[in-house]
Amino acid sequence: MTGIMDDGHAGSTDGSGNTDPGGCAKREQILKGAGTVFLADGYEGASMSRIAQMAGVSKGTLYNHFDGKACLFSAFFEEQVRCRLSPIEALSRNDAPSARVTLVRFAEMTVHLLVSPMALGLYRIIVGEVDKFPHLADTFWRYGFGRTLSNLAEYLTRSVTRGELDIADPGLAAEQFLLMCQVRIIQRRRFGLPVDDSDAAIATFAAFTADSFMKIYEPRHQ
To answer: What PANTHER family would the database entry show (predicted)?
Structure first.
């Protein structure tokens, strides 16, 4: 067993190739069932047979849409990210009145996203099983953090052009800001520790994080 596929199948891409409404609906049905199983049983513990049962489809139908467990998990993860990151991506593409306004909102939305039960569950799966299944890290980075960092770096570059920030390496600064967003509330929630994650607490934390970042990269006028 390679740790990538199970049930005697191999492959790494969505094998559906189906664009008709019925096929799309069936695919969504499968992804919903797969998500339930992955979050309950983890990646290693999830079997294609159990996923087919949970999705209410035959095993043959499951393999008509997905080549194996690895591409099914990637498709499920990508779908979750696409839906949940869309507001954050839209924020980083649209220039608000000031960089601070955007960064506060970005931090606030990021914390709300990453403390959600779905995000916490996926994070624990990947961190807990990445040694056995290295491709999980690639999935997590490609569809999650890597995508977010790219959008944030582009926004920071535009902020530098406007003279709002003074950043020599926007890509590194994007990583720095995203890590700053994950201290206190997110870290504690990931470990199941008590923490105030109310809307008010997150708003206060987001403002503090954005202000701290702005202080580091504020333009040094001659």
So the answer is: HTH-TYPE TRANSCRIPTIONAL DUAL REGULATOR CECR, HTH-TYPE TRANSCRIPTIONAL REGULATOR RUTR
